[in-house]
């Protein structure tokens, strides 16, 4: 008879060390939403195709529906909840609002995390590079042009902030 | 998700022991981009994941101009396509690794997982086949080597015995004046399964091809070597005619099926076209070397 186990997992989530209970069958997506109450992580397809569940794991973009919760013992995870600071929204979040790069918003956390990973690696991407990078994120209502505009506006802001 | 346990192996021997104790329903967990979805959708009965990503041999990549390239079985694709030696010496591998899934898939997916999953359409397998890839396999009876071109036996099946897993993949240093290339056809630019993919590795002396290897994916039950295309080219001068003859041989060899992604007729045509394209790209690479 197949069984699963209760696990105690310790990892750094959005900069804070967290210890939580999970089941060995939980995906990272399930653990973040159900065990840690991080409901910004969205479930779209649950099979790796839509990017709504994207988070940054040890500095790399991953789809949390394709990661087991048990795998993050000792790791560092960033979710959309970790983007804003007490001072305000991150430039990407602000630009998504200003450029109207969302409608229903279910895809937005995934786009924000994916774009965060892109701009960390490539602070001045071309439009083609943005499109290629975001090909794993699906949006069924906004249309991609506004999303590309928002990412480019944020990239520009972030470059000026750095100067 | 079906009930299952998770175990983290920190050495090859420990992974072998975990797989043996786990029996037939234990599975290796590499990047998880195939196997977690399969477990969730209950396409496979799995009650134990053995995570191999904390074994150093499985996670490291090494290149040496004499010995060639060794890639740990679970090294994520972004590290492979981002590697300067891979880009320079093994562009076929670079090209396949660069388009498997999107960025969030490439952060985790691996060559060992692409091979272990043994899909007929797997993108990296034809590239590994033409590059003379050899898998280093560990199991209950010790170590052995398995050539990638003899690895897959049917969709989802391979020569691996219970308890065995791939530690790393080795690619020899190509001879002087060699080139390699990989291409696929999908209806969009990325994020789709190949309708057909093709790879070529060849060696030239002036205008004459002295050695060639071809492989096609998604045209048979397993990725396929195409010796007839090599025969059409080896010992001959590179001309539009000899390149077309190799393409025609690929079209003959392909035995695809009709499915939602493409028809028999389209796939045979693509085998022809893609083989001609990878020849030209491989020749360009060989000349640049
Ligand atoms: C959205 C999406 C897009 C995709 N696009 C593509 C694509 O374009 N082209 C393509 O080819 N594939 C694609 N895939 C499939 C998948 O990403 C690849 O097959 C990937 O290379 C699998 O690697 P992994 O490390 O994630 O394997 P896992 O899921 O960890 O493992 C896959 C299988 O191989 C076995 N295995 C893993 N490592 C080993 C090992 N070292 N030794 C023995 N067995 C092992 C596992 O037990 C399992 O059965 C896609 C998947 C998704 C979800
Ligand atoms: S929910 Fe994970 S990719 Fe769609
Ligand atoms: S805003 Fe609705 S799916 Fe993107």
Order of helices and strands of chain A: EEHEEEHHHH
Name the overall outline of chain A. Answer: globular
Percent helix of chain A = 25-40%
What would you give as the CATH superfamily of the largest domain in chain A? Beta-grasp domain
Compressed to H and E, one letter per element, the order of chain B equals EHEHEHEEHHHHHHEEEEEEEEEHHH
Output the CATH class name of the largest domain in chain A: Alpha Beta
Apparent shape of chain B: globular
> CATH class of the largest domain in chain B, please?
Alpha Beta
SS-derived structural category of chain B: alpha+beta
Average predicted local confidence, pLDDT of chain A: 96
- Total DSSP helices of chain B: 12
The two chains with the largest interface, and their residue counts, are: A-B, 36 and 33 residues
Instruction: Quote the CATH topology of the largest domain in chain B.
Output: Uridine Diphospho-n-acetylenolpyruvylglucosamine Reductase, domain 3
Main sheet summary of chain B? 5 strands, antiparallel
Round the Cα radius of gyration of chain A to an integer and report it. 16 Å
**Low-confidence parts of chain A lasting 5 or more residues at pLDDT below 50?**
none
Identify the CATH architecture of the largest domain in chain B.
Answer: 2-Layer Sandwich
Low-confidence stretches of chain B: none
Describe this structure in words.
The complex is a heterodimer of chains A (163) and B (289). With 163 residues, chain A is of the alpha+beta class. Chain A is 34% helix and 17% strand. Chain A has a five-stranded mixed β-sheet with strand order 2-1-5-3-4, sandwiched between helices. The mean pLDDT of chain B is 95. The N and C termini of chain B lie far apart (50 Å). Chain B is built from twelve helices and 14 strands. Chain B folds into three domains: 47 residues, Uridine Diphospho-n-acetylenolpyruvylglucosamine Reductase, domain 2; 116 residues, Uridine Diphospho-n-acetylenolpyruvylglucosamine Reductase, domain 3; 111 residues, 2-Layer Sandwich (Enolase-like, domain 1), CATH 3.30.390.50. The structure holds flavin-adenine dinucleotide (FAD) and FE2/S2 (inorganic) cluster (2 copies). The site of flavin-adenine dinucleotide (FAD) has 29 residues of chain B, from strand 2, helix 8 and strand 10.
């Amino acid at each position: 008879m197949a069984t699963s186990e209760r696990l105690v997992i310790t990892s750094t989530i959005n900069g804070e060390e967290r210890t939580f209970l999970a089941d060995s069958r939980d995906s990272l997506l399930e653990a973040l939403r159900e065990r840690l109450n991080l409901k910004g992580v969205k479930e779209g397809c649950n099979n790796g195709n839509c990017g709504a569940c994207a988070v940054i794991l040890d500095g790399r973009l991953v789809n949390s529906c394709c990661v087991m919760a048990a795998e993050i013992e000792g790791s560092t995870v960033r979710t959309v909840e970790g983007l804003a600071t007490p001072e305000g929204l991150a430039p990407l979040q602000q630009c998504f609002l200003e450029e109207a790069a969302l409608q229903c918003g279910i895809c937005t956390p995934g786009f924000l995390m994916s774009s965060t990973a892109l701009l960390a690696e490539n602070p001045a991407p071309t439009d083609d590079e943005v499109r290629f990078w975001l090909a794993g994120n699906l949006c069924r209502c906004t249309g991609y042009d506004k999303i590309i505009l928002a990412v480019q506006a944020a990239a520009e802001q972030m470059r000026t902030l750095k100067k | 998700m079906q009930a299952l346990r998770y175990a983290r192996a920190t050495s090859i021997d420990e992974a072998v022991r975990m797989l043996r104790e786990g029996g037939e329903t234990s599975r290796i967990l590499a990047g998880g981009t195939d196997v977690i979805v399969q477990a969730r959708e209950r396409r496979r009965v799995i009650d134990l994941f053995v995570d191999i990503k904390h074994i150093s041999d499985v996670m490291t990549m090494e290149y040496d101009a004499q010995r060639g390239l060794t890639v740990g079985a679970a090294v994520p694709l972004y590290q492979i396509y981002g590697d300067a030696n891979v880009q320079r010496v093994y562009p076929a591998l670079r090209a396949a690794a660069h388009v498997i899934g999107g960025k969030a898939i490439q952060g985790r997916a691996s060559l060992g997982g692409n091979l272990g999953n043994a899909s007929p359409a797997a993108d990296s397998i034809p590239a590994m086949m033409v590059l003379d890839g050899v898998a280093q396999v560990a199991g209950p009876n010790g170590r052995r080597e398995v050539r990638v071109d003899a690895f897959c036996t049917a969709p989802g099946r391979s020569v691996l015995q219970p308890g065995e897993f791939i530690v790393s993949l080795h690619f020899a240093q190509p001879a002087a004046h060699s080139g390699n290339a990989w291409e696929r056809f999908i209806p969009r630019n990325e994020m789709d399964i190949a309708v057909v993919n093709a790879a070529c590795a060849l060696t030239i002396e002036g205008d004459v091809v002295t050695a060639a290897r071809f492989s096609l994916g998604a045209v048979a039950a397993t990725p396929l070597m195409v010796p007839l295309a090599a025969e059409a080219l080896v010992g001959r001068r590179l001309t539009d005619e000899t390149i077309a003859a190799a393409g025609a041989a690929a079209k003959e060899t392909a035995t695809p099926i009709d499915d939602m992604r493409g028809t028999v007729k389209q796939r045979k045509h693509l085998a022809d076209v893609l083989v001609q394209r990878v020849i030209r790209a491989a020749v360009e690479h060989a000349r640049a070397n």
